[in-house]
Amino acid sequence: MKLKTLFIILLASILFLSCEKDVTIDFDRPVKLCLNCILNPDSTITARLTLSRNIENSTTFQPVDDATIILYENGTELNALTSEGEGNYYLNYHPKTQNEYKIVVLHPDFDNLEATTAIPLQPVVYHQPDTLEYIEAGLFYLLDVHYEIHDTPGPTNYWFYWKHTLHGITYSSAGLLSIKAPFIDDFNRTIDSDAKYGFVYSYYVRISDVGYEESTLGFEAGGKTGSFTHFLSADEHYDKYIKSSVKARLNSEGELPFKEPVQIYSNIENGYGIFGSCAITTIKL
């Protein structure tokens, strides 16, 4: 019996050792252009162009100033963006809601970059604040606010967040949003026993209208007088970019020893980065 047990242990050890494999990860990828440009009908157009770097390189990204960046609106060429140095490009033009845009980057040393986006409608949001208590030290009132997003036709993804300035310091909604509603994406939800509903959402609250199209999306959220709440409607590309970026940040902040790698979303053909769009509704409480 003892010999049989010993044989099983030895066999299991051999099988375990035979499953080991040394894996060498190749971080030496070819350098490509990296473009970041988000269109917003409330702003003129800015873009940033740099060279990519491998994951082991912690230096700053090298800017690219000698490229030609052309923007198209509904298939018609608008103009080339002007290089302002340090990888920054600018075009004095306000993009239009619901129009389609294509961006093309030309450089003699790299493949041409291309990407497209369509600017979503501005969110239609109503709100009704209810005063809870006055905070004398901060000179503001704590509020309970009822929000209603009146969803427009077509698939839409909203991102809710707030900012508040107190004694010259601006605070954001990172890790402080406790909201309960069935249309909220729980990808960044964490348990917090001190929160109103026992959990919070880190950085943003992502609201999807899937299953609620053209409905009224109502929910309650805390607030403060003097703060600004923002409702951002993102196109499909910017939506995926924000979600993957938040996942990556939460991954880096977590304490678990084994984490699934997060790939930051990119829609840039032949390169890296993001070309997306959004429309924002801002409410001052």
From TrEMBL:
It comes from the Bacteria. InterPro entries: DUF4249 (IPR025345). Residues 1-20 form the signal peptide. Pfam families: DUF4249 (PF14054). Keywords: Signal. This is DUF4249 domain-containing protein. The keyword Signal applies.
